[in-house]
Predict the structure.
Amino acid sequence: MRLIFTDLDGSLLDHHSYSFAAAVPLLAKLDALAVPVIPITSKTFAEVTALRDQLNNRHPFIVENGAAIYIPSRYFKTQPEHAILENGFWVLRNVPRRAKWQQLLAERAADFGDEFKTFDSLYKDSGAAGVAAVTGLSLKASELANQREHSEPVHWLGSQSRKSTFVYRLIEAGATVLQGGRFLNIGGDVDKGRAMLQLRDLYQRETNSKDCETLAIGDSHNDIAMLEAASSALVIRADKRSPPTLKRSENCYTSQLIGPEGWVEGVSLWLEKSL
Ligand SMILES: [Mg+2]
């Protein structure tokens, strides 16, 4: 069985317009070939479900960089061990929920009072508009982005040296802290590579075989773990930065084209078995 695990932003979706128009014919072909296309993304459940409808995709998906795996209920013959049923999905969570990280941050508020703002507090103070003002996202996108389940983004307002102390204290308390574009993201130890293999194993159990062929597709640093772990890797070239470099050189291809056009270029090669 063949499986495609794909990053969304900058890979299947255009980095700027979020369009996947270039990939529509190939997505239909993959559907006809019964090759599942599985989104694996930093996006939230709310963001992915909206997109999934547009993509007409009925397969499992992995959110928040591997924090949770969502499988449509009854997609497999039996419910995976440890999965819980939520809104029609079997959900496997790999890290603690957002409330735990919010609690941790609340405990730090006394020492770093006005030096940081959480996404949640921005939202509580001024709704989606408060989040939009800091992220530059649209109101609708801010609304969806705030529906995170496994981490809390923090807008740092203090000095660089105080920020280092803040980050150190959080790590000491068991958090993983990732620097995003504008936010520090406070959450558990997530990994797209591990989550991909977890879901692949469920497919292998379902089909009673050990020969699932995986193609991982991504354009950024946070995709490296899954790109290294898949049977084949497709690195999508980005517009204004160099693509991430992998340790592997076998069954690995970097697209010439950017975004969804590069996605089509690489997936077509993989289908022809030249990748
Ligand atoms: Mg990306």
